[in-house]
Design a protein that fits this description.
121 residues, mainly beta, seven-stranded mixed beta sheet, four-stranded antiparallel beta sheet, 55% strand
């Protein structure tokens, strides 16, 4: 069984910083792209940042220069460092990972349960 588990969400002040972590557990052959999405109240889910297995990154325009995604492949973990937080960053943050299990030829996207980030102004 594969599990994607996020942690680190909490209440933060505007202008402050917060770090999220996402760990993949289970019997895994390979993890491909990983990323962070978020869903704000009343809005659709949107991509925040993604990172390939080679370390290439992609960011939403709204977080460029403030958020940094990183990856520790040895630990099956990605991180999201969020600086200069704004009230509009308030959302549930979800981690996703494209995981290929032993015996599979293609990967499958797995999602975590989400972690709440609330930014007060």
């Amino acid at each position: 069984q594969v599990q994607v588990v996020e942690s680190g969400g909490e209440l933060a002040q505007a202008g402050g910083s917060l770090g999220l972590s996402c760990v993949v557990y289970g019997s895994i052959f390979r993890i491909g792209d990983m990323g962070w999405y978020r869903r704000a109240p009343g809005k659709e889910r949107e991509l925040v940042a993604s990172i390939t297995s080679d370390g290439w990154t992609n960011y939403a325009d709204s977080v460029k220069g403030r958020f940094t995604i990183s990856r520790d492949s040895a630990k099956n973990t990605i991180y999201l460092q969020m600086n200069n937080l704004k009230s509009e960053d308030t959302a549930i943050y979800y981690c996703t990972a494209n995981i290929r299990r032993f015996g599979q030829t293609l990967g499958t996207d797995y999602w975590g349960q989400g972690t709440q980030v609330t930014v007060s102004s």
